[in-house]
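Retro notes, structure queue

What went well: the backlog is down to a handful. What didn't: a couple of records were mislabeled last round, so from now on we paste the full input next to the output in the thread. Example, using Nicotinate dehydrogenase subunit A from Oharaeibacter diazotrophicus:
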Amino acid sequence: MTGEPLRLTVNGEMRPVAAAPETSLLTVLRNDLGLTGAKYGCGLGECGACAVLVDGRVVRSCTIPVARVAGRSVVTLEGLAREGRPHPVQRAFAEAQAAQCGYCLNGMIVATVALLARDPAPSEVAIRAALARHLCRCGTHVEILAAVRLAVRLTAEAGGTIVRETAS
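Corresponding output:
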């Protein structure tokens, strides 16, 4: 890359990135910034393993060029926890034992955070719709749905705080 580095706000912190503008956000997060919560699954934006939040919306980081997120807020799985405590959604997924291999869960956690930011008391239909494009090959669907329901309760108990835009 030539010229000035791109400036990204990732998990509340301004980060200069010396990458070609067309490089995928996933590649920059994992390879340049060392944030490995978003996973490379399909590379086509189909499986959801690479999901992150951009300005509070779920995006597939494997298909979005890094230049498109310059100047915007990016929150990864790592950015959800605060002061050594997991985010209520992360806690819910752990308590509900929603993981089998765990590969899909990071994207599902991010999608759940976005869902609860939009709708703190989603219906079963809304929960299923929010996770519909996130693929789980291990078959932990029942536990994942239980985790989202638990996340609704834990988030309410935590005062409804879903996404924190600034670092601690």
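Agreed that this is the format going forward. Reviewer comment attached to the example: The radius of gyration is 15 Å.
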